[in-house]
Amino acid sequence: MDALAQMHFTTIDYVIFALLLASSMGIGLYYALSGGRQRTTQEFLLADRSMSCLPVSLSLIATFQSAVAIVGVPAEIYTHGTQYWFIGCAYILGLFIPAHIFIPVFYRLHLTSVYQYLELRFSKPVRICGTVTFIFQTVIYMAVCVYTPALALNAVTGFDLWGAVLATGLVCTLYTTLGGLKAVIWTDVFQTIVMFAGQLAVIVVGVQQTGGVAEVWRKVSEGNRISGIDLNPDPTVEYTFWTLGVGGVFLMLSLYGVNQAQVQRYLSAKTERDAIMSCYMVFPSLQLALALSCVMGLVMFARYCGEDHFHNLGVLSKNEMVLYFVMDMLQGLPGLSGLFISCLFSAALSTISSAFNSLATVTMEDLIKPHCPSMTDARATLLSKGLACSYGLLCLAMAYLTHLMTDSVLQTAFKIFGMVGGPLLGVFSLGLFFPWANSTGALVGLGSGLAMAFWVGIGSIVTSTSGGLAAVSQFNCTAVQLSGNITTAMGTALISTAMPTATHSRPMGLQRFYSLSFMWYSALNSFTVVITGLVVSFLTAFIFNLRTNESGGGDPRHSLSPVGQHAVLRTR
Ligand SMILES: O=C(O)CCCC[C@@H]1SC[C@@H]2NC(=O)N[C@@H]21
Ligand code: NA
Fold first, then answer.
1. Which residue from 57, 92, 478, 493 puts its CA 20 to 30 A from 387's CA?
2. Which ranges does the record mark as transmembrane (predicted)?
């Protein structure tokens, strides 16, 4: 690792990183001291429902494009090829359905927390379970998002790990607590631009240092890195067109359809049309974000494949490898490595600030307000700020605890979304698309979805076949190396990842179930909720019918509260 120690920052790099933190802080202060000065919950939590579609759409991207994608996707492309790029196909339905099904319902109900819908449609217990599930998912996801950039950075540049986590966490907590959703949205806009700029810089320099686009293309296609469509129907293969293009739709719906952080952005739009437009505008930017991270992986492959660059680095994890590549590319260009570090922390900041704000919103709206009806709005706003601040500190504590860093942070993030976001998507779908589903069905359904999620998720971790052995495309990169007779440490590592040592016998029975690709978790868990929810709804309705028939009662559909029913039918 000694070769890395020499990668340190020049003063200008630190200045650029400090500028990023300072400007985020400045935006937070600006919104704390302007407009309504964050004195009402409407302003603090919903930006006075005054936002236009452009900032909302960039903020929607920033919320679920964290350092995990910036570091994890290039590592995935480098190791397995561009199969992952097919997740872009899931963005079509993954944004179209939220725009025309979920947004109209939530917007017309004038909600603050998306879980209010669950009380209107079902009952209060369903709402509380939804809120608690969301809080659990977001706190874990936040910890991964804070820790990823700091860990990768520390490993490659010796940049002080906890100093970075602390600086990021505190600045983020401050501007989120002071400036509310307006500050979070506008810092997201700024940070998304920094994110794109940083990735572009690495790509441009990388291509130039690899000898131009044609050279990169030659190396990449020789290295068999451009994957065609993999139509393998085997659900245990990590990334195929089906797991990404179809499984990915359910992942997108759980994020862009029913996740509080995203719905809160839709609700902050000044008109329903702006909300729908912001969802449409996410599509091109999300494709750009995906393209940038995939191309970065390809350039990294072209740059290093066949060289003994990693000779003394065999132990690097995939995430650190990406940072090594970036520092190697930008090393001689003062300011650019600072730009990329800012890109990495922008990705993290924009995700965790959205998380703090949405956690404070649902805690206030769903868990506190219902028990303190007489609370004045001024006090509620103050309490919301206190909540945002405490969630910020909790996130820092979680980051300190998070040594769970699996080799692929991308997989960890997908598992969190699939295991927890999937059941939430299921319970909302039950409410929106099945008028005869009742709250007992919803509760039992949500519980079964979470049980299924943890059964598969924990099972896959325990049997360490998480997502199955990816069908790694054999590539000539090692052939190039072998012919060049340079078998480097990384080359050996690549060989081990590329060709599983033991001939992998197809898992059977439960083992096969545990090796289900995590890209199917959202679909599996949401279907579990819907099916269980419908069965239990029919059973309870049937029993209810029997009892009321004896006493001459009414139609079980009256268990649908008028507002919930009205909302569903009105959007038909
Ligand atoms: O970057 C992260 O923090 C999580 C990984 C990406 C989450 C999903 S993948 C599909 C969609 N596209 C994104 O850029 N983020 C979400
Ligand atoms: Na982000």
1. 57
2. 12-33, 53-73, 85-107, 128-149, 161-181, 193-211, 239-258, 279-302, 322-349, 382-401, 413-434, 441-462, 518-544
